[in-house]
């Protein structure tokens, strides 16, 4: 159908029962192009990558920090600090831009509560306490997420986060986009020589990219959630692009999945000013910038890991 030079590709994502020849796998591995296989619904199956690169000293220090829960908490709290800051900013911006359509008083109460939680998170040195604070804040944030859906309200609604399987169209979109973001973050961590499977907030579990989930926390709202809201509110997708299976799972059809992937790649090309580096980069490079900053922290070049705080 088409031919593309490999040097133009950063990663290949395939959905459904699509195969790949050993020659293609080898060519991608040689050029550090990740090849990811997913089911038609967006569930991760496998990932083919080249040899592990990076500094072994960096990875050994990462493992030492991960094995020490007190040290892990010092890193993990900054992931959550970034997440809360970005969640607060999303709500504040929505209240400012759509004050006539939203319950501004309720949203301000939640943003004030998030601000107080951020103060507590800043001094937390225990992972269980940190998870408790993050969980309570997430409940507050999601309690008004449905209000941010301003168009197609009859078809797109959010009454709480559900997954495996997603039971409504908004959760189907969120799960799919979170998978895309997770793959981008994993690739970014591996590119700087960090082990994406050894985390600080999310502890070790076979087959789970715990560190990718850690770094994702600060990017979920500002990158993925805003993207999903934009797709719905700008009517870039419609209800007819979803169908329900016998078990209640809501799934996107092929055309809708293509539309989301196309819009996702376009969003990744948009330029922003990185709040810490103070340099103009594309959205798609944000996971790589954060991976580099995390590597610098692990090496001891930075006193703290600087989370991505966007505004």
Descriptive report:
There is one protein chain. It contains nine helices and seven strands, in the order βαββααααααββαββα. With 311 residues, it is mostly helical. Strand 2 and strand 3 (44-48) form a beta hairpin. The strands form three sheets. The protein has a three-stranded mixed sheet with strand order 1-2-3, with helices on both faces. Strands 4-5 form a two-stranded antiparallel sheet. The longest helix has 29 residues, at 69-97. It has helices at residues 22-30, 56-67, 69-97, 104-121, 127-143, 169-191, 210-233, 254-269, 286-299, and strands spanning 11-15, 34-38, 44-48, 242-244, 250-252, 271-273, 280-282. The chain starts with 10 loop residues before the first strand and ends in a 12-residue tail after the last helix. Helix 6 crosses helix 7 (210-233). The model has no long low-confidence stretch (mean pLDDT 87).
Number of strands: 7
Structural class: mainly alpha
The residue-averaged pLDDT reads 87
Order of helices and strands: EHEEHHHHHHEEHEEH
Strand order of the largest sheet: 1-2-3
Radius of gyration: 20 Å
Strand content: 5-15%
- Outline type: globular
Largest sheet: 3 strands, mixed
């Amino acid at each position: 159908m088409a031919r593309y030079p490999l040097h133009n590709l950063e990663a290949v994502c395939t959905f459904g029962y699509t195969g790949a020849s050993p020659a293609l796998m080898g060519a991608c591995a040689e050029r550090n192009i990740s090849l990811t296989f997913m089911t038609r619904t967006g569930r991760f199956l496998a990932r083919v990558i080249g040899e592990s690169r990076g500094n072994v000293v960096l990875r050994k220090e990462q493992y030492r920090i991960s094995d020490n829960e007190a040290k892990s908490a010092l890193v993990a709290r900054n992931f959550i600090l970034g997440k809360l800051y970005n969640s607060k900013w999303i709500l504040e911006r929505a209240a400012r831009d759509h004050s006539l359509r939203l319950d501004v008083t309720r949203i301000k109460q939640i943003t004030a509560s998030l601000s107080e939680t951020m103060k507590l998170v800043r001094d937390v040195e225990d992972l269980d306490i940190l998870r408790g604070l993050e969980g309570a804040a997430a409940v507050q944030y999601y309690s008004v997420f449905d209000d941010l859906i301003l168009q197609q309200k009859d078809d797109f609604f959010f009454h709480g986060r559900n997954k495996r399987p997603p039971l409504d169209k908004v959760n189907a979109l969120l799960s799919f986009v979170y998978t895309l973001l997770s793959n981008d973050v994993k690739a970014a961590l591996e590119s700087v020589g960090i082990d994406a499977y050894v985390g600080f907030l999310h502890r070790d579990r076979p087959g789970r990219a715990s560190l990718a989930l850690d770094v994702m926390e600060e990017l979920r709202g500002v990158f993925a959630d805003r993207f999903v809201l934009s797709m719905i509110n700008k009517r870039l997708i419609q209800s007819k692009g979803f169908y329900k299976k016998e078990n209640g799972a809501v799934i996107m059809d092929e055309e809708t999945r293509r539309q989301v992937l196309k819009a996702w790649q376009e969003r990744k090309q948009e330029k922003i000013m990185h709040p810490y580096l103070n340099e103009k980069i594309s959205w798609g490079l944000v996971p790589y910038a954060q991976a580099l900053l995390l590597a610098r922290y692990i090496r001891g070049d930075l006193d703290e890991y600087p989370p991505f705080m966007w505004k």
